[in-house]
Amino acid sequence: MEFKIALIRGDGIGPEVVNGAVTVIDKVAEKFGHKITYVDVDMGGNATDKYGVSYPAGTAEKCKACDAVLLGAVGGPKWGPDKPAEQRPETALLAIRKDLGLFANLRHATLRPALIDACPLKDEIAQKGIDIMMVRELIGGVYFGKRDRYETADCGVECTDLMAYSEMEIERVGRQAFELAMKRRKKVTSVDKANVLETSRLWRSVMHRLAQEYPEVEYEDYLVDNTAMQLVRDPSQFDVVVTENMFGDILSDEASMITGSLGMLPSASIGAQAPGLYEPIHGSAPDIAGQDKANPIATILSVAMMFKYSFNLPEEASAIEQAVDAVLAEGWHTPDIAGQGEPVGTKRMSALICEHI
Asked: What is the pTM of this model?
């Protein structure tokens, strides 16, 4: 089979982890008889330096011409909040998600067997295992709502950010969560703040309606503050967790951190049509950029999700995941992962995973 992949190498450690992931893609393609073509796309801080904007014209069109998009990481203090919006990498991230219609962000937070000791939770909790699919609505809510800034008569400047959701937006991401649960352990936890927010009350009513369509799936409502607590008390209770944009942004980072390292967690952003966008959840880590210290595993596992969700090739996805587990079981580790002996760098870790495919 033939596939075209857009590579947004990005900023900081982004190019290093993408390069490592490309070696794995090439290895999988060789083993399973696929042909891969790559298209480089500039986006983020590097694009600002080149073109004066973080999201150059034509970026979405280049990505739409591909079967999937692999993103390293964008951002850094060089392009911080003091810069105009069009020069900030975060603006590009929001734009690409919107333009590609990527309404669901999937973050698979799993505690890999070789890294139980790296879990910050008590051993008796870690031993129960962590395998959570976080489903975050990605292109609605307060991050995309109307904003305003104005002077008041007696309180100085006041700002507002509008959180808005429609039934359609809630239903499409909710259905994605139920479909995923049908392929996993058949449990969905919907997270909201229905005791306070009107958007959450609509969210809950739509989710209840969807739950009736999936009688095989166990369904429950959790308030967001309780979810944050339960994630550290007993994360093994969760299977698929679905929530709105801002809550998902926060909770998925918490779920990822309890697995031992942000450098280990992949993500997929998908919509109704191709291409999907795949990226590690970590940032650009400019403090270690160019030093061969970055952990490429999150990006490599994002590639596994790409093979599974965009290319519908689960065997190839499993080969990558099994190779990662085998390398970790042998004791190899990057500086961010606890382990015995000297840590290895980005290139070496990528090569080791390739050897096990």
From this structure: 0.90
